Amino acid sequence: MAKETLLLRNVRPQGGETVDVLIRDGHIARIAADQHAAPGAQSIDGENAILLPGLVEAHTHLDKTLLGMGWRPHQAGPTLKDKIDTERHLRREWDIDPHRQSMRQALLSLGHGSTAIRSHVDMDTDCGMEGFEGVSRTREALAGLIDIQIVAFPQSGLLVRPGTLELMDQALRDGADVVGGLDPCSMDRDPKGHLDMVFELAERYGKPVDIHLHEPGELGAFSIELITERCRAHAMQGRVTISHAFCLGMPDRARALSLIDDLAEAHIHIATVATPFRPVPLADDLRAAGVTLCAGSDGIRDCWGPYGNADMLERAMHLGLRNNFRRDEDVEHALWCCTYGGAEVMNLENYGLTEGCRADLVLVGAETPAHAVVTHPPRKLVLKGGRIVAENGCALRDAP
Amino acid sequence: MAKETLLLRNVRPQGGETVDVLIRDGHIARIAADQHAAPGAQSIDGENAILLPGLVEAHTHLDKTLLGMGWRPHQAGPTLKDKIDTERHLRREWDIDPHRQSMRQALLSLGHGSTAIRSHVDMDTDCGMEGFEGVSRTREALAGLIDIQIVAFPQSGLLVRPGTLELMDQALRDGADVVGGLDPCSMDRDPKGHLDMVFELAERYGKPVDIHLHEPGELGAFSIELITERCRAHAMQGRVTISHAFCLGMPDRARALSLIDDLAEAHIHIATVATPFRPVPLADDLRAAGVTLCAGSDGIRDCWGPYGNADMLERAMHLGLRNNFRRDEDVEHALWCCTYGGAEVMNLENYGLTEGCRADLVLVGAETPAHAVVTHPPRKLVLKGGRIVAENGCALRDAP
Q1: Which domains are delineated in chain B?
Q2: How many CA atoms lie within 13 A of A179 on its CB side?
Q3: Rounded to whole angstroms, what are the CA distances from B233 to B111, B201, B226?
Q4: Euclidean distance between CA atoms B340 and A323, whole angstroms
Q5: B128: three-class secondary structure by DSSP
C-alpha cells in the first residue's frame, strides 16, 4: 500500500496555488493544501515547483536518430528525395539499429519529461520490418515508463515502391497504432491512389491516420482537400492528423484560412515542428478556427539534420518564437500544444492535472508556465503512472 | 611571472588536433603539442575539449533586461511603437536600473563564453543619460572581464524627439563607442534628416555607426540605399553596421541581392538575431557577396519580449536553424558569425586562435564545432586576457 502511495507536497499545478498532490495506484487521488502522508508512505517536497502533466512528443522518428553514435557530418543533398535516399543507404552503412537508437532517444525524452511519444517508423522494401520490430521492442521494454505510439510510415513512398503496402499491412496486424502517409502528390505521384490506400488500411484495422505533408502552396492545399474529403467519407473525424502542413503557411491567407475552416469542420489535427526556415501553419489561425495543434521534435540528430534534443519544453519555446508569442497567455498556448494538444491528438486517456487523472507528471522549477517555457530548466522530477522515472533532467533507467 | 603564465593542456583549437596552448601576459604565446609548464606556473587539463575564441554578442540591449527582477508578463501591444512607448513607461514604474541590469546580463553572457558585447543603450528625453551612465559604470566595473561597446541609441526617435541629439552628442563626448540610429523613415519620418545627423555625429567624433533597421520591403530597401550613399560619402567603409535589415529577406530576390552587392561594395556589415517569424537577411546571400554577418541576442527578457538567455552558441544554433544549415561547414559558418564575424564588426584587436592573439578563449566539451553549436553545453572554462573568468557555465564574479 505505502509503495503505491506518494504525496507530492508543495507543488503548483500549471503554476497556480501551492498544494499537495496525493498519488495512489498510479492516479491523482487528491489535490488539496496541507495533506499528510500515510504512515510509511513516500513524501516528496516539490519546493513550490510548477507541476505539469507529462509532456507529449507528438511527432518524431525514434528509429533513425544517431544519438550516441558519435558526430556524423550531414551528407544529404537539399531535396526531400536526397534525404530519403541518403538515409536508406546510410542506415546499412552506419548500422543504425532501430531498437538501440529508439531506446536512446526515448529515454532522453523521458529525462526531459515527455511521458508519451508518437513515432513515425520507416518501412520500405530495403529495411522491411526492422524499424518496426526495433521500436516495438523499445515500446515493450519501456512499458510503464513512457507510452510509445508507432505510426507505420512509408518514408520511401507507398505506390512508387511496390511491396510497401504489404509491410504496412503486416505492421498494423502486429500492433502498429497509426497508419502513416507521405506527400501523396510529390512523393507517390498518385494522390488518389495513395490516400485511398491509407484510409482503406485505417478502416480495415480501425486505426487513426497521420500523414506527413511537406507539399508547398497549392499542391499541398490540393492534398489537404483530398485528405479532408476522405476523413469525412470514412467518418474519421477526430482521428486524422496532418503533420507539417507547410502549405497552411502559404502567402494566400484567404485560401489558407478557408482550408483551416474545413480542417476544423472535419476535426482534423495538425502536428508541427515550428520550422523557422519555411512557412508553417500559424498557431493563432488554428486556435481561432478550433483546430488542435500538437508539436514534436521531428528527427533528432539523424541523417536529415544535426539539430534536436527531445526537450518538449524547449520545443514550446521554438513554437512561441516561430509564432511571435510574447504574452503569457500565448506562450502558455505553445505549452498547451506540447501537453494537452499532443494528448488530444494521441488520444491519451485520463490525461491532465485533475483528480482521477493518470499521474504522468513533471516538476519544473520556474515562476510561471511562460517562465518554464522560455528557460526550460532541467526537469526536477518526472512521474509516470505515479512512479518516479526521471530526476534532474535524466531518466533513472540507463540507455544502451 | 608564474601568475601571468597559464598552460592549457589537451585542447583542440576550433575542433582540430589536440595541442597545448601556452598563455603569457594575456596572449597566446605558443601552440604546440606536449608543452611543459614552467615551474610553479598554472596548468589546466582541457580534456580534449574544443577551444574557441571568445564568443561575441554583437547586438543586444544591456540596459533594459529584466533578469533577476522576477517574472513580468509581457504587456506591450503588437507594433514597434507600442513596445517603445510601453518600455519608456515601465522603465520608471518597475525601476529598471541600467547599471544593475546590465551587470546581470553581462555576467550571464560571460558565463556562456562571450568576451565582447556591443550594446545599444537607450537615450531619450525621459531617461536622459541614465542608461548610458549605468552601462558605462558596468563597462568600467567589468573592465578586464568583458569588453563592452556602447552604442548611443535613439530608441524613441531622434528628430521626432527634440533634445535627443544633444544627449547623443553628450554620450559620444563621454565615451560612447558607436553612433546608433533607428528606422529613418518609419520612426523618425525624415530619412534624410535622420541619417545626415547620424553620419555627421560619426564624423565629428570619429566613431562607427550601427543603425537598427526594422523597415520592411521597399521602405527598408530605400533606407539601405540612403545609408550606403552616406557610408561612401563619409568614407566610412568597414565602419557601418545595419542591424536586423529585415528588408533583405524580401520576396523580390533580385532586388535584395542587388542591395547586398551594394552593401558588399561599401563594406557595410549586417547584424542579425535570426528572427524566426519574419523575413531576415539570409546568411548564404551575404556570405556569397562578401558581406560580414554578425549575430546577437537582441533584447533578453525585457519589455520587448520574454525570450533569451545570452548564450551565443545557442544563437549560432538559431542562426543555423533559421538558415536551414545542416552540413558541418554551414553550421560552422553560423558559429563564425558568432565569433569572428562579431569580432570584425566590433573591430576587436588581436582576436583569434593563433599565436600572438589575445587570450580571450572558451572551452566547450563537444566532438566538433558543429556538435558544439547544436548541443551548446555549459562552457567548461572562459578566459579573458588569459585570466579564468568563468567555469562550468557561470561567471566567477557574482552579479548584483
Answers
A1: 2-53+351-391 (2.30.40.10), 55-346 (3.20.20.140)
A2: 28
A3: 41, 14, 11
A4: 31
A5: strand
Nearest C-alpha neighbor of B116 from the set B368, B363, B385: B385
Closest alpha carbon to A221 in A157, A288, A298, A279: A279
Question: What ipTM was assigned to the predicted interfaces of this complex?
Answer: 0.96
Tell me how far apart the alpha carbons of residues B98 and B127 are, in angstroms, rounded to a whole number: 10
Predicted pLDDT at A2: 41
Q: Got the DSSP string for A83-117?
A: HHHHHHHHHHHTT--HHHHHHHHHHHHHHTTEEEE
Distance CA(A153)–CA(A134), nearest Å, equals 14
Q: What is the DSSP letter of A158?
A: S
Question: Which pLDDT does position A118 carry in this prediction?
Answer: 98
Residue B4, pLDDT score: 79
Residues 6+ away with beta carbon under 8 Å from A167 = A123, A124, A125, A128, A129, A132, A152
For every residue of B11-74, which 3-state class applies, written as one string?
Answer: EEECCCCCEEEEEECCEEEEEECCCCCCCCCEEEEEEEEEEEECEEEEEECHHHCCCCCCCCCC
Per-residue CA distances from B105 to A11, A93, A319, B395 (Å): 29, 47, 25, 11
Shortest Cα distance, chain A CAs vs residue B381, angstroms: 21
The reply to whether residue A307 touches residue B321, judged by beta carbons under 8 angstroms, is yes
Is A375 in CB contact (< 8 Å) with chain B?
Answer: yes
Inter-chain contact B306–A374, Cβ cutoff 8 Å? yes
B371, A326: Cβ pair inside 8 Å?
A: no
pLDDT at B3: 53
Flag whether residue A276 sits within 8 Å of chain B, measured between CB atoms.
yes
The segments of chain B whose pLDDT lies below 50 read 1-2
* Chain segment A86-95, per-residue pLDDT in tens: 999 999 999 9
Distance from CA of B303 to the nearest CA of A (A): 10
- Give me the amino acid identity at A152: A
Q: Considering only CB atoms, which chain B residues are within 8 Å of A274?
A: 276
Cβ B305–A326 below 8 Å, yes or no? Answer: yes
> CB-based contact (8 Å) between A277 and chain B?
yes
Helices (H), A114-159: 130-141
SS (H, E, C) B381-396: EEEECCEEEEECCEEC
Residue B79 touches partner A, C-beta closer than 8 Å: no
Burial (CB count within 10 angstroms: exposed 0-12, middle 13-18, buried 19+), residue B144: exposed
Q: Read off the C-alpha cell for A39.
A: 504512515
Other beta carbons within 10 Å of B193: 13
| Residue A398 one-letter amino acid | D
Query: Does B305 touch chain A if contact means CB atoms closer than 8 Å?
Result: yes
pLDDT score of A39? 83
Strand A55-60, strand A381-384: pairing: unpaired
d(C-alpha A272, C-alpha A297), whole Å: 9
> DSSP 3-state assignment of B113?
coil
